[in-house]
Amino acid sequence: MQAEIITIGDEILIGQIVDTNSAFLGKEFNKIGISIYQITSVQDEKSHILKALKEAEENADIIIVTGGLGPTKDDITKHTICEYFDDVLVEDQDVLENVERIFSKYKSPLLTVNKHQALVPSKCKVLMNHNGTAPGMWLEKNGKVFVSLPGVPFEMKALITEQVIPNLRAQFKFPYIMHKTILTYGLGESALAERIEAWEDNLPHYIKLAYLPSLGRVRLRLSAKAEDKVLVEEEVQRQVNLLLPQIEDVFVGYEEDRSIEALIGQRLIAMGKTLAVAESCTGGFISQSFTANAGSSAFFKGGLVPYATASKVKLLGIPEALIEEHSVVSKAVAEAMAQNIRSMFESDYAISTTGNAGPAKGDSDAEVGTVHIAIATKDYVISEEFNFGKHRENVIGRATNKAFSMLQKEILKK
Amino acid sequence: MQAEIITIGDEILIGQIVDTNSAFLGKEFNKIGISIYQITSVQDEKSHILKALKEAEENADIIIVTGGLGPTKDDITKHTICEYFDDVLVEDQDVLENVERIFSKYKSPLLTVNKHQALVPSKCKVLMNHNGTAPGMWLEKNGKVFVSLPGVPFEMKALITEQVIPNLRAQFKFPYIMHKTILTYGLGESALAERIEAWEDNLPHYIKLAYLPSLGRVRLRLSAKAEDKVLVEEEVQRQVNLLLPQIEDVFVGYEEDRSIEALIGQRLIAMGKTLAVAESCTGGFISQSFTANAGSSAFFKGGLVPYATASKVKLLGIPEALIEEHSVVSKAVAEAMAQNIRSMFESDYAISTTGNAGPAKGDSDAEVGTVHIAIATKDYVISEEFNFGKHRENVIGRATNKAFSMLQKEILKK
């Protein structure tokens, strides 16, 4: 069973927003056994939307359309879908009440255009949007399902998980799809591929392997699809068991549905341990990655971003002499930062970063891309020096990923 | 002149990565007057890629293909393009030298698969990739341009700005496209639309208006496209001058190509002023947003993420009695946090956030979604209380945006 995603909105095509909805949809659909055949982003333009709907209907069984459901003139998805289904718009009483409820809650005056949010194609089943005024709409044609959803991410996400997926499950029987992703660090994509070539060549036809290199890591993703869930899971596990001894030296862990920082958090909570972070060159990125996850206050005590060199001295207690002797981007300073932030927050673990993310040299003579990362525990401190290249975004991203890997390694020792 | 983007890779369709390349391409192409007709994401599968190429060739003059150029077996873009152009692969000496140079720099052994990176279609013009081993490839067919680029963002970006765009400019004449985006805060999309309806209806046909609501803000984007650059710019400015008096109370500023945090940074640097941040519920997001921009060390002194309540007392000097009296999520605590962080970092301005991002209640009884944001200067401190709803991601995002708006307002007073 295949689905296709159509995202509508000029803002996507002119690059004003990044389309994150499609990744969410891809992930959620895969979980229940629906592959995404194609993602198509089109303009707020009637003939283009009609063409995309027609092509999607040819390729897929389920067509998910997001965006273009706002109350203003540039939003034309609803009228276009109505035309595609040769239908008329009718007022839905429940949607109207939902719109009125939302406007009275926010004490905003209810305008005619807002009431128009309650107009839906007569043939559609309404998916009530409890987080906004634009309802989801479910339509069917020749056994194919079309779902139109608002483009606002949290409204779309709630509609998908609470209504679209349960409805699809009730209506169709899906094959089982599973993905297993293995994180490696330290070997390039091609060297890794050469090393495991014999294993890869012997994978059964229903298991596909992909290499995903990103910011210093290579992720190996196994994707399997078949009717029998138990058999697929056993075979994937058997293949992983064959693979692991060959990549022991570079294996970091598995990436479940959760990110490495979520996994670290989970593990720290289970251990009853806590974390603090002192970030210079990563500028808050590490803290933000941890706190983005719900429940992070159970292990994350906090962080400091001592961006200016003076604040490393004054607020983090790094001796001026140490900075003068070694420079602010050095092993000695990184280790002192990790130890001091750990004491300040009275945490079990601490991470620190100091480096030069570029593009210009900062308060140190270190080459652009040089980063020192340290991990401190009650008993010891370790650190490593890296060069993450000359692109600021990359340096910050790779330093963050590396800090996660280093911390995970220390945690797994326990 | 229209372009189409094809992004290749199963990882996009299963939602393992978010496609950020397309937004970059959309933005860069728009700057030089090329509209993106469609973005299509397809699987690593030959027949599907061939179909996408054929459809794109029908719609667009320029086809940009990203992804699928790695050295491993799952990367099939190069072979597929070769087939589409009825061509053969030949070894390019310059690319081979580039590959050898990169491998010798990182002291990695050069494998046969890596040497295969130097195989390119015989009809293509090579776009040398100075940041990686997979070259860009420029091909032409019936007056249409096809460019295949690696999917690694920083490799792709460098090839686009340094080679693809200069080549396109040399070969074609483009119309002038401009976008002007006006930021508003405080009025809903539909209320705004009703207020400016007469103005919108009188826009000339070559100026298009879009409403972009996001996390509490509504952005109004004017897009204009015509041959004559001067006339277009004058007309857009004239329309903006007609609009502004109607939205005076909600107008925040313009969004140039740069984000609001980049504009704030630019302005602080021009004023010779500095900033520090104390973030509780935003958990590092504000700091990270500032430090993501190059040159931020010229105004950003640093930040503290006092996530645990105890660290607000110990590290930020918030009196325990104040927290007990008002609770940790309160106006009094937010204002003290902003004042104290400003003193600690000796900055001119400071931002603080304290709130409950959910999903569960934290160290305070405040309702999920409650956030207090304060701005401190040498002379005064102000704060506001908000409720940003019950979705964690939203609460953090809206609190961050609101903090930027509040700070910008204070800075503009000077």
UniProtKB/TrEMBL annotation, chains A, B:
Domain of life assignment: Bacteria
Gene3D superfamilies the UniProt entry points to: CinA-like (3.90.950.20), MoaB/Mog-like domain (3.40.980.10)
Similarity remark: Belongs to the CinA family.
Matching HAMAP family: CinA_B
Record SUPFAM superfamilies: CinA-like, Molybdenum cofactor biosynthesis proteins
Protein name: CinA-like protein
UniProt cross-references to InterPro entries, sorted A to Z: CinA, CinA-like_C, CinA_C, CinA_KH, Competence-induced_CinA, MoaB/Mog-like_dom_sf, MoaB/Mog_dom
Positions of the MoaB/Mog domain: 4-171
